[in-house]
Specification:
5 strands, alpha+beta, 41% helix, five-stranded mixed beta sheet, single chain, 273 residues, 9 helices
């Protein structure tokens, strides 16, 4: 495992694992991708560590990881994390996706704006909310509902799920402290689902992520790093590296040297030869 906060991170919207996830890759890259895919988040996937576990040298592994990046399975960059004291810090990230993703998908992922993909198989004919309502009669027989009642109340239950409620929370809210007798189970449940509805959850702030060139490490916008490589490393113009500002002490020292040199020069100019 890498140091806390570093190492592999699975990209969002991962599909179920199959035996053919990396069949489109050459054998070496497919084997490395399958190994990395099965590592837990936080695992150290640097070439030095992988070379100790896999039958490949560091140069071969570096080449293979770059090819996985070009194929859309890997991206390197940084992510800004909030700290407990209210500050923040940038963490180096290596994101891995079981499915090959194009540059457009990675750009959306960087913004925290990955669209949900439709399920590959049709879901069950009865929703989770419908099943919960139909099962209430086994917990409290006085709350037995008809199929029509379940269909009518299901949207209210779905709203609870959307606000983070669990099935156990719902069952407790609907069955605790029932009056005697219950004249209309559907009306009672509708009233409880409406009156006890939990508040809307606070929307999480989107993550702040920056991708980096796999060759030189220069940060850039996703559209400037197609395939995870900048234009300079692809043979175009040289990447623009931001200049590093001098420390304040160095600036004051240099300014003092310049003033001293100018003072000496002025004195020499006033002295007659």
């Amino acid at each position: 495992m890498a140091n806390p906060g570093y190492g592999k991170r699975s990209a969002s919207d991962q599909r179920p694992r199959t035996n053919h996830d990396f069949a489109h890759l050459p054998p070496r890259e497919a084997a490395i991708a399958a190994y990395v895919d099965r590592l837990p988040d936080g695992a150290d996937i640097s070439v030095k560590t992988l070379a100790k576990q896999l039958p490949y040298g560091q140069c071969a592994l570096r080449t293979a990881l770059n090819r996985l990046q070009a194929a859309g399975h890997l991206r390197r960059g940084r992510e800004r994390l909030e700290t407990e004291d209210g500050g923040s810090r940038w963490i180096t990230r290596t994101w891995f996706s079981r499915a090959a993703r194009d540059d457009t998908w990675w750009a959306a992922f960087t913004r925290g704006d990955v669209p949900e993909e439709p399920p590959e198989r049709p879901g069950p004919t009865r929703s989770r909310a419908h099943i919960l309502l139909a099962a209430l009669g086994r917990t409290a027989p006085v709350l037995s509902l008809s199929a029509a009642d379940c269909a009518a109340l299901a949207p209210l239950v779905e709203e609870w799920f959307a606000r983070g409620a669990t099935e156990e929370t719902l069952r407790t809210a609907l069955t605790a402290g029932l009056p005697t007798p219950v004249h209309s189970p559907a009306a009672l449940l509708r009233r409880r689902l409406t009156d006890k509805l939990p508040p809307e959850p606070v929307a999480p702030r989107p993550p702040r992520r920056v991708l980096e060139c796999a060759e030189c490490g220069v940060p850039g916008r996703p559209e400037a790093l197609p395939g995870g490589v900048c234009s300079g490393c692809r043979g175009g113009r040289a990447p623009a590296h931001p200049s590093t500002p001098l420390p304040a002490l160095a600036v004051r020292t240099r300014a003092g040297e310049i003033r001293a040199a100018m003072s000496v020069r002025r004195r020499s100019e006033r002295t007659p030869t």
